[in-house]
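Possible regression after last week's pipeline update?

I re-ran a chain I had predicted before the update to compare outputs. Posting the input and the new output here so someone can diff against the archived version. Not blocking, just want to make sure nothing changed silently.
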Amino acid sequence: MKDSKGQDEQPDYLGHRSRLRERFLKSNGKDMADYELIELLLTYVIPRRDVKPIAKELIRKFGSLGDVVNADVSRITEVNGIKENTAIMFKLIKEAAKRFSWEILSDKDTPVINDWDTMIDYCRSEMAYLDIEEFRIIFLDVKLRLIGEEIMQRGTINQVAIHPREVVKLAMDKKAAAIIMVHNHPSGDVKPSRADIEITKQIKQALESINIQLIDHVVISKNDYFSIKSIL
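New output (post-update):
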């Protein structure tokens, strides 16, 4: 006996996928929830399955699109229905976003400080989702354009050990005229510690002795950032 729906009738989720794509095209996804964007992404790597429950489970497990994209492959594949190839897709999205922000900053023949929001977005994508503190330096030339960056230290979840002489040496090695220091607070609280403020003062003084400018020392989190330079 034939299925009462007919042999040529398509599964319901295929029509839903078409509607998702149409919604995305109308607004570039601005009116879509995180789980809907994830669902749309999953349709391209999981072609023969209703992926809405998987998308919702990813949000339930990790919290947001940003958290999913920044999660380890091993943790993403813990979700039922997610294989390694799908998890790698999320990591590719993260890497593409980071490179795009860096290219915007690098290609401009203008000071980095003129596009501070992009600078913060880049630092957030690189560091804000880490489980431990990381301290990195961004090097600038005399026109305050990007030269490069370097991760100087990775620490425990509450502490990173930084020495002013090491910062000075790196800046001189890179022939930098100015630097931006950035570190993350995995707790999400961007209020600088006394140690953060004190080391910033020491590094600023050490750099000034060799005519290198400290543009800022930024504490970054997923949703916020703090300029230590603003309170010195």
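Follow-up from reviewer: compared with the archived run. The longest helix spans residues 84-107. Marking as no regression found.
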